[in-house]
Amino acid sequence: MNSMKDCYELENGVKIPCMGYGTYKAAEGNNEGIIKTAIEAGYRYFDTASFYDTEEALGRKRVLEHPLLGGLAEKYNKSAAQICLRYEIQRQVIPLPKASTKERMVQNYQVFDFEIEKEDMYRIDSMQPAGWSGEHPDFPRVK
């Protein structure tokens, strides 16, 4: 291993960064700021657990503003959030979207009337990680 960008390959072919950032008690009260700083420093793997209470800070990434998702949203006449939800469904991963209004709750279910083309699935797969700590071991990215 020569840099933080180097990865170990697990038995199932999934790659995991050779070093991660521990979020337990990471700058209590300023989790979002410290996570942003860690990302800027090059970290792409974050250790977390519900006990740490850092999920919200880790999840605050502007992935929905990514130009690729915006383009796909326009192509499929859906929102970027709906593209993300449909992407996970097509990967057989159960998404758990958050919504605080009835309108958003309904929109979250309006993802079963279209399918993302395989080429577009590959394009989403090629996006740089946006805050997750790695692949789900049972559901690797489309190959």
Automatic annotation (TrEMBL):
Q: Which UniProt keywords apply?
A: NADP, Oxidoreductase
**Residue stretches making up the NADP-dependent oxidoreductase domain:** 69-127
Q: Which GO terms describe its molecular function?
A: oxidoreductase activity, acting on the CH-OH group of donors, NAD or NADP as acceptor
Q: Which InterPro entries match?
A: AKR, NAD(P)_OxRdtase_dom_sf, NADP_OxRdtase_dom
Question: Does the record carry Transmembrane as a key word?
Answer: no
Pfam families per record: Aldo_ket_red
The UniProt entry's sequence similarity note says: Belongs to the aldo/keto reductase family.
Protein known as: Aldo/keto reductase
- Organism from which the protein derives: Dorea formicigenerans
